[in-house]
Amino acid sequence: MPKRPTSPAELPKSVPVFPLSGALLLPYSHRPLNIFEPRYIEMVDAALRGDRLIGLIQPEDTSEESPKGRAPLQSVGCLGRLTHFEESGDGRYFIILEGVTRFRLMHELTVLTPYRQCVISAEGYEADFSRNHGEEAVDRVRFVKMMRDYAEFANFELNWEEIESTGTADLVNFCCMVSPYGAAEKQVLLEANTLEERAETLIAMTEYEMARGGSDGAAPLN
């Protein structure tokens, strides 16, 4: 299996991209995906034959989950490494992408493949290659209090033993990925400059939801 890139210099100049509204991937986190559209089945096949890298990025128009054609894309996405796949009898895939680094979309290529391919740059995202970068600046006590308050607010249980054993960076990124917020909020969390900023942004979103009493019907973290 091709190894995980460890710096921007090890990234390919272009990657296949999977436009998916509301789906957040962050470095070292894992995103399960069910792949059933023929164009994306072909994309996964190509990734398995190659470097196993796929860019997950949101379309600017969030009204379609997986937009047809060449809908404009956000300027920032996250590169994922395909670390697990299962193929069903009807040719569908269940895959898991492990986040490698955020990237800026430089431009889209004109290609013959049914899936889209883009030139990317990870310049400015060097810290994404270090799993724990920036976690010392995060107020973990405050972040965990937010989790506790939200669990009580939304009436669900958390595995506190697992939380205690999870590193701060992994905890923040996981909570951001499974948070119940929409595509625009997920993009803000993705583009946060630092881990501390991402944590504080999620705390602010959650406190705002709890203050409103959950009137928008958001689902709980899980």
TrEMBL record:
InterPro entries: Lon_prtase_N, Lon_prtase_N_sf, PUA-like_sf. Residues 15-210 form the Lon N-terminal domain. Pfam families: LON_substr_bdg (PF02190). This is LON peptidase substrate-binding domain-containing protein. Signal peptide: none annotated. It comes from the Bacteria.
